[in-house]
Amino acid sequence: MSALAPNYKRKNLSFIRGKGSFLITADGNKYLDFVQGIAVNSLGHANKKLISAINKQSKKLWHVSNAFRIPEGEKLAKKLVKKTFADAIIFQNSGAEATETAIKVARRYFYSIGKKHKNRIICIKNSFHGRTIAAIHASGSKKMTEGFGPKVPGFDHFEFGDHKKLKKLIKKNTAAIMIETVLGEGGIKVIPDFCIKELRKLCDKHKILLILDEVQCGIGRSGKFFAFEYANVKPDIVPIAKGIGGGFPIGAVLMTKKVSKAMKPGTHGSTFGGNPLAMAVGNAVMDQINKNLLKNVNKMSKYFIHRLNEMKIKYPNIIKEVRGVGLLIGLQLFNDQTKFIKKLMENKLLTIRAAENVIRILPPLNVTKREIDIALKIISKVCNQIK
Ligand SMILES: *Cc1c(COP(=O)(O)O)cnc(C)c1O
To answer: Is 22 strand, coil or helix?
Structure first.
């Protein structure tokens, strides 16, 4: 028996090395990795600049605690502020922590302006905001909350697309609407730009806050730095994680000046959050998420999605829909996707599931056309095997 608790359904496969878009096993087998640690390794495996940044920092200083100034973190915060809607940042270590902090910031904002009754958060049913106690109840998923009662209060849910219900849920005690700009785990469901725009208007009308969870779709994955930029709106609070660390655990909450003022000294903290080692890596990631990289994301996305749609026409009984934006791509099948994913893996292409029979395809942002062609060939081969 393994010494690990059985909470993961792991594949019997492990790796000793990674290079760019590829993972290599102990016996030298090479897999095309289009999972990239679930959209985490935004720059692929063993990125030279990230290796150099972590090596350099590791010899100087790892951790000091937030009792002291951390120049590396101030630098990264400045870069994030310069590039986005945000005026202030709080660093965390993971996505769930970032979404929880986003909830805390929203509630504390209303508390600070004398409206502490405004504390409820409206979320999409079966969305994903992480696995901590509050985050699972924010997601409103029966599967994730089962056996983890009592229910954490303070969250109201509407079904994806049910705008009537959403409007009905906004009450005097509502603090914020929190949604993923693109539902990742939920099946790569892109919220249309006009809906994001309407959400912003709705929040303005009711003077509540808009929290856009960009933990999975942010940091260039959508082809823009943030996916909500397509809708040309400014959210109030944005939790990020995954891609910003390039493989090192980093989370953060971006916020406007208005709400940041509520986070007075002592209101929130994290022992590890924003330590010099993490921040050195974060800075090196940010420096590489530039115009050229986003150009590559858009170019590769267009090509990949186009070719996948051709395949959908060729295999109309297997592929139901090609979804996504940028390099957050979902291949929705008519049937359960488990066997398909397994066959892709046998052919040395790694992908991962999402809800609604979707196969999630998450290449690194610097993926090449040649690598996408390898993936397309394997997907086509598996379609032929399965039909
Ligand atoms: C992955 C994810 C989270 C949780 O991140 P962890 O680092 O696993 O805690 C939260 N929100 C979204 C949208 C995610 O995709």
So the answer is: strand
Pocket test residue of 211, 216, 272, 360 for ligand 1, highest count of atoms within 8 A of CB: 216
**Ligand 1 atom nearest to CA at 242:** 7
Query: What structural domains and CATH numbers belong to the chain?
Result: 17-47+291-386 (3.90.1150.10), 49-288 (3.40.640.10)
Ligand 1 centroid to Cα of residue 135, in Å, is 9
Q: Is 45 helix (H, G, I), strand (E, B) or coil?
A: strand
Counting from 1 in the atom list of ligand 1, the atom nearest the Cα of 184 is 15
pLDDT digits (tens, 9 = 90+) for 241-281: 999 999 999 999 999 999 999 999 999 999 999 999 999 99
- Model-level pTM? 0.98
Residue ranges lining ligand 1, Cβ < 6 Å: 94-96, 99, 128-130, 180, 184-185, 213, 215-216, 241-242
What's the CA gap between 110 and 142, in Å, rounded?
Answer: 29
Contacts with 28 (C-beta within 8 Å, 6 or more apart), sequence order: none
